[in-house]
Each structure stands twice: as structure tokens, then as C-alpha cells.
Amino acid sequence: MLGPLWLTLSMGAMIGGMGPLYSSLFGTELSKFFPHLALGIIFWGFFSSMVTDSCNAFIGSANYLKQGYFPISLFVWRSMARNIIQFAHQIVLYIPVALWAGISLSWSALLFIPAFVLGLINAHALGLALGLVCTRFRDVTQIVTSVMQMLMFLTPVFWLPSSLPGRAQYILWNPFAQMLDLLRTPLMGGMAEGHNWWGILGWTAASLICSCMLFAKYRRRVVYWL
């Protein structure tokens, strides 16, 4: 009866259960920590599902690729579209959290739009590269899954960046932490750091170059690897 609303309910239950607990553990005011945690979990679920699904973008579409000619990038977009729909069901959870916490948005909230576009560009480039590599070397999927699990704890999803000591600030230079800051900060009424914009722009350029090189060289071999 609920259909895709189960995605919203399961995510809402996790956020509602973890918010008061982690706020007490970190000694942070709940009204400040709860929106940070809610957006962190929602966006990280989006990142993680994008990356892990892209590993099987071509493997899961083997029947189509073997039966006819299709642009292989189409199947990366197919995987992305599924995750964007799931994300749309989950981001609505932030509305009651923001109303409860009394967050007032300004014009800086519009910076979410270019940040999200950059995220989609990176997701397509990374999905194309990972799809090619994981189709050729199937064990890479397990490596990517393990790395994403590790990065979840090295990215400020459950904790505040302000709680890090000086020497540990380098953790915030990983691209997932930078992208999370670009997406989350505008929705909390602030503005992301400038170095995060430059970092993501550099990462975007590198991922586009890498994926274009792999695509140009190996796109015709995908069907033979399936």
C-alpha cells in the first residue's frame, strides 16, 4: 500500500533514532546537530548508492547490450535516474527537521542547485569509469564497497567538522566531504567554504578526463567482457 514511501519511512526511522543518541554522545545541542545529521545521512545514502550501483551498470544490463547496439552511457544514466528518484523520496524528510530546528534559508540556498549539478556530472563520469573497470575486473566491486564503508566514517556524516583537532583537518579534503559540504551547508542557511568549490571543480575535471579516456579506448569491448 505504501509503495516507495517505505524508502522515506525507513530513512526517517533511522534519522529519528540516531539524532538524539549521537547528539548526546557528542555533547551537541540537538537543534543544531539534528539537521546536520539528517542531511548527512540522506546525502551519503545518495552518494553511496550512486557509486555502488555504477559498478554493476553494465553487468546488470548484459541482456540489452548483447542483443543490440545501445550507447553504454545510457545505462549509467539509467542507474543514476533510479538513485535520483530514491533521493527525491528521502530529501522530503529534511522539511520537518528544518521546521523543527527553526532554520531560515536565504538566497545562499540557491547554491544547492549548481552543487547538485556538479554532483551529477561527477556521478556520471565516475559511474562510466567504474562501470568499465568493474565489468572487466569483477572483484573491484567489492573493493569499492569496502572503500565506501570506510569513507562513511571519514566524512562528516555523523560528526561535526568543528570537533576535529587541527592535524585531522586533512580528512575534510576528500571529495565526498567537499561535495557534502557544498550540498548541506546551503540547506542549513550557510555558505560552503570556497576551497571546497575549487576542490570539487578540480576533481570534476580529473574524473571527466579519466572517464573520457577509458570510454574512448574500451567502450567497444564491454560486450565481450560480459
Describe the model.
The protein has helices at 5-26, 30-55, 62-67, 73-91, 94-101, 112-136, 140-154, 175-187, 194-218, 222-225. It starts with a helix and ends with a helix. It has one domain (5-225). With 226 residues, it is mainly alpha-helical. The chain is built from ten helices and no strands.
* Number of alpha- plus pi-helical segments: 10
**Strand tally:** 0
The number of domains: 1
Computed over alpha carbons, the radius of gyration is: 19 Å
Q: Can you summarize the main beta sheet?
A: none
- Helix proportion range: over 70%
What's the helix-strand series? HHHHHHHHHH
Structural class of the secondary structure composition?
A: mainly alpha
Précis, in short:
The protein is an all-alpha fold. It has 10 helices and no strands.
Strand and helix map with partners:
Blueprint (H helix, E strand, L loop, with lengths): L4 H22 L3 H26 L6 H6 L5 H19 L2 H8 L10 H25 L3 H15 L20 H13 L6 H25 L3 H4 L1
Helix pairs in contact: 1-2, 1-4, 2-4, 2-5, 2-6, 2-7, 2-8, 4-6, 6-8, 6-9, 8-9
